[in-house]
């Protein structure tokens, strides 16, 4: 049986005139329905029963493979009693359904005014975790990582969601087993390191000459690196490849 918006709205208007037993029977029959009620601009138009609170979570916020669990922080004695024989729930328009938050409750079949209940929105998803100790400066590879299912609503943002991000990356600091892998834990892999002997190409208007120099610092692809020539002159160039530096005059 399908209920229209107009029917539900009419039922809510007339609900306080119905006996609690009839209202509860109505709610039982609609336990799997998602209802849309025009409750004003301050609240979302989607209303659900207590068994479908997860449908209020914005799926656009969920990482791939996530499962949502919405738990009441504390059972409200009004819900299921004569004061609120049938309850519908909605989320306020600008409230993020993530972690501990609240929902608005509309009672069907009673004169109880709307009220709020606290909920805990848990979002379980696979998260990359370090399984082998990685020293600072060492490459971070897929073999150093395993996925564990975690409640990401309790994690600070910034964890790695795609292992392709590991390409040409090294640990920015020592990473211990069990560490949630975040973008800030990695940096681009250096193609020139301090103390390396590098091949240098010096380019100017109409000429290019080659030579060697010592790198005075590390650099990733495309970064500026300071070098010292065999004559002791300090130059700045761009790291263009493994142990390759180009200086423009």
Order of helices and strands: HHEEEEEEEEEEEEEE
Beta-strand content: 35-45%
Structural class: mainly beta
Count of separate structural domains: 3
What Rg do the Cα atoms give? 30 Å
Say how many strands there are. Answer: 14
Quaternary organisation = single chain
Helix tally?
2
Mean pLDDT: 82
Task: Please tell me what the overall shape is.
Answer: elongated
Largest sheet: 5 strands, antiparallel
**Termini Cα gap:** 80 Å
What proportion of the residues is helical, as a percent range? under 10%
Spans of at least 5 consecutive residues with low confidence: 1-44
Structure description:
The protein is mainly beta and 249 residues long. The protein has 3 domains: 5-122, no CATH class; 124-188, Antifreeze-like/N-acetylneuraminic acid synthase C-terminal domain (Type Iii Antifreeze Protein Isoform Hplc 12, Alpha-Beta Complex), CATH 3.90.1210.10; 197-248, SH3 type barrels (Roll), CATH 2.30.30.760. It is built from 2 helices and 14 strands, in the order H-H-E-E-E-E-E-E-E-E-E-E-E-E-E-E. Strands 3, 4, 5, 6 and 7 form a 5-stranded antiparallel β-sheet that branches. It has a 5-stranded mixed barrel with strand order 10-11-12-13-14. Strand 5 and strand 6 form a beta hairpin. The longest helix has 11 residues, at 5-15. The radius of gyration is 30 Å and the shape is elongated. Mean pLDDT is 82; it is low at 1-44.
């Amino acid at each position: 049986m399908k209920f229209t918006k107009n029917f539900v709205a009419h039922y809510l208007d007339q609900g306080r005139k119905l006996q609690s037993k009839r209202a509860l029977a109505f709610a039982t029959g609609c336990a799997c329905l998602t209802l849309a009620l025009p409750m004003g601009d301050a609240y979302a138009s989607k209303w659900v029963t207590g068994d479908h609170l997860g449908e209020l979570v914005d799926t656009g916020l969920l990482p791939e493979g996530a499962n949502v669990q919405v738990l009441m922080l504390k059972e409200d004695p009004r819900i299921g009693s004569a004061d609120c024989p049938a309850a519908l729930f909605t989320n306020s328009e600008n409230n993020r359904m993530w972690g501990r938050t609240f929902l608005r409750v509309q009672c069907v079949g009673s004169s109880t005014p709307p009220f709020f209940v606290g909920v805990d929105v848990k979002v379980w998803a696979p998260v990359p975790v370090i399984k082998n100790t990685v020293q600072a400066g060492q490459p971070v590879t897929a073999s150093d990582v395993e996925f564990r299912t975690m409640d990401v609503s309790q994690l600070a943002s910034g964890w790695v969601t795609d292992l392709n991000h590991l390409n040409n990356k090294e640990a920015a600091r020592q990473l211990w087993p069990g560490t949630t892998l975040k973008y800030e834990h990695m940096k681009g892999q250096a193609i020139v390191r301090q103390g390396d002997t590098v091949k240098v190409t010096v380019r100017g208007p109409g000429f290019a000459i080659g030579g060697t120099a010592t790198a005075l610092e590390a650099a990733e692809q495309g970064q500026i690196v300071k070098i010292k020539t065999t004559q002791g002159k300090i130059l700045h160039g761009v790291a263009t490849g493994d142990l390759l530096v180009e200086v423009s005059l």
